[in-house]
Amino acid sequence: MAAVVVRSPVDLLLSATMTAATSKVEARRRAREATRRANEERAARDKANIDDAADFLVAVGKVAEVESWKRERLAQLRAQVDAEAAKRVAGHRAKAGAAVARMQGRGETLTTIAARTDVGIGIVRTMARHAPKCEKRTAGNGSHALGLEALSGPTAQGVDPHADQPPADAASA
């Protein structure tokens, strides 16, 4: 048979008070523990966020540095390309100018050169300005082999071979 335990109202009251006191202390302990864990988790999250924020700021700074480097490098490359293009254009203009000069040397006018090449007269004039200046033209004798210096006094080196001889008039006097 089962034994029946009969409790008195005082026993029940004392038991309920102890249970209530025990459970309130236990509840406070559990609440403090939960708060401590939450604070630790928050602190760990904050520390991780601070580390990630630092990584983020460093990376953004490096992106800005790369953009600045890119602008500088493109400016350098643009200057190099511009210089190379200027050299190439100057060479092509010189060739075109030399061709115009040769055609003019054969008696063609800029207008006829423009008409025969189907290019505007302005372009032909521009290219004629870029003709190499190395040829010295003589006045109408048709020979371009010798410049004007060969026809008068000093030689090409600038020295007169007859400078040490007296003039013909002085010898007869």
What distinguishing features does this structure have?
rod-shaped; mainly alpha; 0% strand; 173 residues; disordered C terminus; 71% helix
Architecture overview:
This protein has 173 residues and is mainly α. The chain has a domain at 13-129. The chain is 71% helix and 0% strand. It contains five helices and no strands. It has helices at 9-105, 110-117, 121-129, 148-151, 168-172. Helix 1 packs across helix 3 (121-129) and helix 2 (110-117) packs across helix 3. The longest helix has 97 residues, at 9-105. It starts with 8 loop residues before the first helix and ends with a helix. Mean pLDDT is 79; it is low at 146-165 and 168-173. Keywords: Coiled coil. Residues 133-173 are annotated as: Disordered. Residues 24-51 form a coiled coil.
Task: Briefly say what this structure is.
The chain is mainly α and 173 residues long.
What are the segments in which pLDDT stays under 50 over at least 5 consecutive residues? Answer: 146-165, 168-173
How would you classify the helix and strand content by structural class?
mainly alpha
The helix/strand order is HHHHH
In what range is the share of β-strand residues?
Answer: under 5%
Biggest β-sheet, characterized?
none
The global form is: rod-shaped
From the N-terminal CA to the C-terminal CA, the straight-line distance is 178 Å
Q: Could you tell me the number of beta strands?
A: 0
Q: Give the radius of gyration.
A: 52 Å
Helix content: over 70%
Number of helices: 5
Can you give the mean pLDDT?
79
Keywords: Coiled coil
Region (Disordered): 133-173
Coiled coil: 24-51
